[in-house]
Design goal:
With 187 residues, the protein is an alpha+beta fold. The chain is built from five helices and seven strands, in the order ααβββαββββαα. The strands form two sheets. The chain has a five-stranded antiparallel β-sheet. Strands 1-2 form a two-stranded antiparallel ribbon. β6 and β7 form a beta hairpin.
Length: 187
């Protein structure tokens, strides 16, 4: 499989060294097909190419800017890991995967929970198939299940690749006095 989506994007420096969210084993065509059948959605090719590089994990750039406030922040969300396929953290996992998150945590049944957030289950990033159908290219959304009576959905990106390319380092949002002074001294 060629690298169609990640031209000009250095995947070798994308991931943290930690293997906490990494699923064991390589991503194969059979594993992809099994996950798609289990979840009922075609996985975006950009997602498949990313997890073929490393089967899930924590990215170095772990924040995504938002135009509206979320329960997390006034201007961004954070992710702790991108879920791969297989293992405990895979989107297809019976224990912590997408179906579990939808059934047990009350996420809307509109797609696939693809990224964990630091809240330990209270919010997550999902692939949203409502507009495109199960075989289309899903939007990427943030869902907060603790916001109100209904899950609060915040649009993030038109597709998975745009979401990944839009991630920024948490230092962009560090507003501590020490960080402000350091930034001023660098100017």
């Amino acid at each position: 499989m060629g690298n169609r989506h990640w031209i000009g994007f250095d995947l070798s420096t994308f991931w943290e060294d930690s293997d906490y969210f990494t699923s064991p084993g390589p991503v194969t065509a059979e594993i992809i097909l099994n996950a798609e059948q289990l979840l009922g959605y075609r996985l975006p090719s950009s997602y498949i190419e990313l997890i073929t590089n490393k089967n899930g994990g924590s990215p170095l750039n772990d924040c995504f800017p938002t135009l509206t406030a979320t329960s997390w922040s006034e201007d961004h969300i954070a992710i702790s890991g991108i879920c791969g396929l297989g293992g405990q953290w895979g989107i297809d996992s019976d224990d912590l995967g997408s179906r579990f998150m939808i059934e047990e945590w009350g996420y809307p049944n509109i797609g696939i929970v693809v990224c964990s957030c630091p809240s330990a289950g209270h919010d997550a990033v999902m692939l949203d198939y409502r507009e495109c159908g199960p075989d289309g290219e899903p939007n990427v959304i943030h869902v907060d299940v603790e916001a109100d009576d209904e899950p609060r959905i915040t649009y993030l990106a038109q597709d998975f690749e745009a979401f990944i390319r839009g991630l920024v380092n948490k230092e962009e949002y560090d507003n501590s006095e020490a960080t402000k002074l350091l930034k001023q001294s660098e100017q």
